[in-house]
Amino acid sequence: MPVDTANMTKVFERPKSLTDARYTYCPGCHHGILTRIIGQAIDELGIVERTVGIAPVGCSVFAYLWYRCDGIQVAHGRASAVATGIKRANPNLIVFSYQGDGDFTSIGTAESIHAANRGENITVIFVNNQIYGMTGGEMAPTTLIGQRTTTTPEGRDASLSGYPIRFSEMIAQLDAPVYVTRQALFDTRRIADATKAITKAFENQVTGKGYSLVEVLATCPTNWRMTPIQANEHVRKNVIQVYPIGDLIDRGA
Amino acid sequence: MGERVLLRGNEVIAESAIRAGCECYFAYPITPQAELLEHMARNMPRLGRTFVQAESEIAAISMVHGAAACGVRTMTSSSSPGISLKQEGISYLAGSNLPAVIVNIVRGGPGLGNIAPAQCDYFQATKGGGHGDYHIIVLAPSTVPEAGELTMRAFDLADKYRTPVMILADGMLGQMMEPVELLEPIDPATLPSKDWALTGAKGRDPNIILSFDLSPERLKEMNLLLQEKYAKIVASEVRHEETLTDDAEIVIAAYGTVARIAKSVLRMAREEGIKVGLFRPVTLWPFPYDPLKSLAERVDTVLTVEMSAGQMWEDVRLAVAERAKTPFYGELGGVVPTPRGILSEVKKHAR
Question: Which of B79, B139, B250, B342 has a Cα-to-Cα distance from B55 of 20 to 30 A?
Fold first, then answer.
């Protein structure tokens, strides 16, 4: 039956700050949801004309394709240092880095911690899917104990490769950061919460409050060898046991 | 005319960067360039400009990456081991067509080496340094005043070609004090605007700065554009200096501190009746192959003298080919050649 759209009210649409480019992510992966809610936050604050997005190395290397704002692709792990350079060069810009767990908590450890410790007035979106997605599913510092990856084929063994790193908790120990939170996307309630958190993290920058970090627990159905639904359940049942959801610090109030 | 002051090389480079309109400086402490960092720490904030002591050399060059992308004049400085760490970022800057200035006050290597003057980073500076098919412009001052002039010139070249430019000096130049006439400061606000820079996509399409493309065909195009740029630099920016080469039978090829020492040797040798001249590359990349080739047509010997095991010597031999003899004399590990030491090498090759 043909649908008459003439008298309908549009209640849901693509955020205006997003382009029409198709995502390069696998089906069921949370990067797409996250990209969208960052777009919603940028729309809500009306900042797209002064925002610069920083794309890392990894699955989100193409992150600059999806926003109608200026963008730059940078070296693996260095996004927080590049963000520092951009924000210091032009404090009027709203700068966000989008970094995976390998980028942010492994090769970029020093850059991640020190940008936070200097209290750079930037917004960091840290996507934690406990694995290296793009290179084929290797162990990350965030990989759960016992989790099988291509470099821990028998499961991660703490005696050989340490424990899942709770990086946001480390950042939350520092004096300078304003807002550090961990969010998830496995159901609509969490997506709504994550959207609020990301909006707040941008708002803190707009109002000059300082450094905000939003860790987002994401799925990687492809490399976890799960269906998207199984992957969501895995986050709900197992991942949040190791990485509890919620605000770690909120000094922006 | 500018202000005449007595300063050490590190301070002259720092002050000249400020006068060139450098708005953002990022670095990590290392000897023998610490005075450069300290001069910037004292003066950049006072001028309302950015000084950040980075957590590492890698972070410092990554901050330069960000600032350069915003279109401001930006610089980092270090010494040999620190420059090794910066190579990742230099490759990104080159691949992203971003202008920036990098100062290397070279010390003895490899590894931790020592903190004495050396020229052992010539290969790293002129042949690429990091990954990928790229070059950076490399300028080699041989006096403290020239270090100042070339620092200001480095910023102009970086902007003109959207490329990283390196000042390759050594610990001697960094530490030595000389009277210097500082050049007039440039107001950064008067510099041409950069329409490619990240300034916010207001009233225009987004500007995106990249050094990558997964398509081999398109990445090849990006590389060909880089190569075209390098060809233009080679055609227009080669600089060298010749001293007493008109009647010379032997020419010393040397750059930086060694070239300056060699100038004393010219006088000493000529007092003994040996006709010696000096060929001094000012740009190490692009290397002055053609001028050296022409000179080699009319001399017997081109003696390369370096504080390395013979790195520039390779370029000298490429230029001279079989036109003249190409002996080499080098000192290593931070040992600086003396005028007498060079003179005795010259005598070995005199007719």
Answer: B139
Homologous superfamily of domain range B4-199+223-236: Thiamin diphosphate (ThDP)-binding fold, Pyr/PP domains (3.40.50.970)
Q: B47 touching A, CB under 8 A?
A: no
CB atoms within 10 A of CB B70: 26
pLDDT of residue B344: 97
Q: In A, residues 3-62, which contact B (CB 8 Å cutoff)? A: 48-52, 61
All structural domains of chain B with their residue ranges: 4-199+223-236, 241-349
| Closest CA–CA distance from residue A5 to any residue of chain B (Å) | 32
Quote the domain boundaries for residue A57: 31-250
The reported pLDDT for the residue numbered A1 is 67
- Kindly write down the DSSP assignment for every residue of B232-294, as one continuous string: HHHHH---EEEES-TT-SEEEE--HHHHHHHHHHHHHHHHTT--EEEEEESEEES--HHHHHH
Contacts of A85 in chain B (CB under 8 A): 24, 26, 62-70, 74
Q: How many domains does chain A have?
A: 1
Mutation target to probe the A interface, by most A beta carbons within 10 A, among B198, B204, B212, B214 is B198
Task: Please indicate, yes or no, whether the overall pTM of this predicted structure exceeds 0.90.
Answer: yes
Strands B100-106 and B164-170 turn out to be parallel
- pLDDT band, very low/low/confident/very high, at B1 (cuts 50, 70, 90): low
B241-349: CATH, from 3.40.50.920, 3.10.310.10, 3.40.50.300, 3.40.50.10190: 3.40.50.920
pLDDT in tens, B15-26: 999 999 999 999
